[in-house]
Amino acid sequence: MEKKQSTRERMIDHMKDRMKEVKEANRDEEKRKEFEQGILAVTKKLHYKIELSWGGPADWLEVITDKDNKEIEGIIYHFSDWHVHEEEYLNNEEFEEARQFIEPFIIN
Known about the structure:
Number of domains: 2
Structural class: alpha+beta
Largest sheet: 4 strands, antiparallel
Oligomer: single chain
Low-confidence stretches: none
Number of strands: 4
Radius of gyration: 18 Å
Helix content: 40-55%
């Protein structure tokens, strides 16, 4: 029986396929037009980086907001140590606590 791929493994496979399409689009005008026809939207977001530490390890919060009203749409915790990087979206409770802390930095 074949092992079911994890979501991460599926994401990596999908990303590789997309990057092949991008490469083809960069090299062939017809492929580019075809690829552009499939794009659903281009959305502008404003990202803030709240740096908590710089090294040994480094960690920070990435805050994603609507560019117009600065409403916080997502918060990602990043952890980086010796060329290894992990990130995780905050869950509901963590998001709410972090949002309360972060809002004063981005509202002004």
